[in-house]
User: Fold CRISPR-associated endoribonuclease Cas6 from Metallosphaera yellowstonensis MK1.
Amino acid sequence: MIFSLAFSLRVKDEVIVQPFSSKVSRMILAQLYPHYLKSTDSPGPKPHRVTALRDRRPLFSTGKNVLRLYPGKEYTFYLNSLEQVLAEEVLKNPSGTVRVYHTEGKVELNQVKYVQVESLALEDSRTYVVRFLTPTLLQPPRPSFKRRRNRYVLFPYSPLLLTSLAVHWNAFSHVKVNGVGGLRALYYFREVGYNLTPITVPYEQGTVRGFVGWTKFSLDARRSSGFREKVRTLLGYGNFMGVGKSRSIGFGEIECFPWRARGEGEETDRT
Assistant:
């Protein structure tokens, strides 16, 4: 089961925050919920995802301008978790006052949603759109030779996208999803349209370079095939848990949905 918890934040005074605002979301959760703070120290994939702050759209800056929060405005963020113990901890303490750098913030739990894994699959469709709302970092397979740094791609090739979703799913589910990468994804889940922008965001002491925008995919596997069902389920899973490296801290936030051909202009309106 996935627990989706929506929070609101109001700050007392104007405050400059980190260029990627999930730093604020995580700071808030760490002050209120000991189990969340403890889980951030564990290695490997995390069973939760925290989004960037939102003011209609995720808040982040490329560093050219400072990112500010203003009193009188309400910001939102989400904590999506596979852990019931964390959800229960939040429900026992649904609101509080926290420090947001030099000012105070009022945090409230606004919405709780429980999603059964069996209901994650998106509606069947010939075409799906994936919107990449925050910088997304997809990795190709790791090579056997030594390398100085990790390699990330600036296009969501379907084998890399589906493999990333499946790896996270398999880390926490007893029902494994296999066989979605490689040539099967390349031929049966094809990229047929896109509008993507490479973007660099300051984070901690360095920078993160990924991409944002949207890609349209054609799902050509036969109806009721195992591959088709897996793709629909993984896309639904990505709506809650994100995709790619550092998804637990707000990178790789995506929105996946079936596309209905009502004119190309409507698609770009949703980006």
Remarks:
- Confidence is low (pLDDT under 50) at residues 262-271.
